[in-house]
Amino acid sequence: MIPEAKAVKLIKIYFYICERYEEDLKYCCERFSNNDQPELTDQEIMTIYLYTIQEEQRFKVKQIHRFANEYLRSWFPNLGSYAAFSNRLNRLSEAFKQLVVPLLDEFQPKDCCLDQSLLDSMPIITCSGRRSPKVATELVDKGVCSSKGMYYHGLKLHALAFRRIGKLPFPEQLLITPASVNDLSVFKQAWSNIVDRCFFGDKIYFNKEFFAELEREKGSVMLTPVKAVKGQTEMEKQWNKAADDLFSRAVSKVRQPIEGLFNWLIEKTDFQKASKVRSTKGLMVHIFGKIAAAFINLIF
């Protein structure tokens, strides 16, 4: 049994998932077999996964199943074996991906600065850079995380988030790419058509010519810490140092909360470590299921 307050949370998550399932999630996990009405429903599996991560801080699938078997049997009597649960969960990878969309769209806080966005990315690590990847090889590749000073195999989560004064930013969009993909390339492909926006990024987004054109055509500007200009003399560097340092500190202070957003995701879901996944679908559940578990907590 679980305490009453947690039981209320479990019920709320279940009914929210059932509502979303009827609207759009069922189209992401349609069954083409005689077993189209299993005893343990897709809604129940998603509820168990989201609740156990969010409320009980159990991050591995085996831990989630063990907890459900010990404490949630009265709620889900048809739970079944760990192997069956894991297999069914992996089939819901697209449903979890679809679930993230309304969680970000429908529950956007009212205090978001809609004309200011913070940009950054974080690694999702399937194995170290010294090893060869064995899982989801069609998706992952080798990249470098400059903030941690390491090479790794995996993916990269890119975040475009609305600024909130004095609070963690709220994601407008989250994108997944192979680890080697450059952040600036993602911006050019996905977000360069956004108009009348002030973006705050790190030095990797520095591209004077591109963003000058973006400002002319779209009215959007990119602010980054000042990057050293190749060929600049020492006298020129010193001449501009005070103003450049002041500007860089101001930009870094504004965009620092997006690092807090990533830290919050990691703390809530152990999102960054994906070394235990054993399939492509399992990796997608690990990513989008845990994003959903983190943000569904903001609803209830």
In terms of topology, how is this protein built?
Layout: H1 4-23, H2 42-56, H3 61-71, H4 82-90, H5 93-105, E1 113-128, E2 141-145, E3 150-163, E4 170-178, H6 183-190, E5 198-200, H7 208-218, E6 221-223, H8 234-269, H9 280-296
Parallel strand pairs: 1-5, 5-6
Antiparallel strand pairs: 1-3, 2-3, 3-4
Structure notes:
It is elongated and about 75 Å long. By secondary structure, the chain is α/β, with parallel strands linked by helices. The protein has helices at 4-23, 42-56, 61-71, 82-90, 93-105, 183-190, 208-218, 234-269, 280-296, and strands spanning 113-128, 141-145, 150-163, 170-178, 198-200, 221-223. The model has no long low-confidence stretch (mean pLDDT 91). Strands 1, 2, 3, 4, 5 and 6 form a six-stranded mixed β-sheet that branches.
Keywords:
47% helix; 17% strand; alpha/beta; six-stranded mixed β-sheet; 300 residues; elongated; 9 helices
Q: Whole-number radius of gyration?
A: 22 Å
Question: Roughly how much helix do the residues carry, as a percent range?
Answer: 40-55%
Weakly predicted, low-confidence segments = none
Number of helices: 9
Q: What order do the SSEs take from the amino end to the carboxyl end, as H and E?
A: HHHHHEEEEHEHEHH
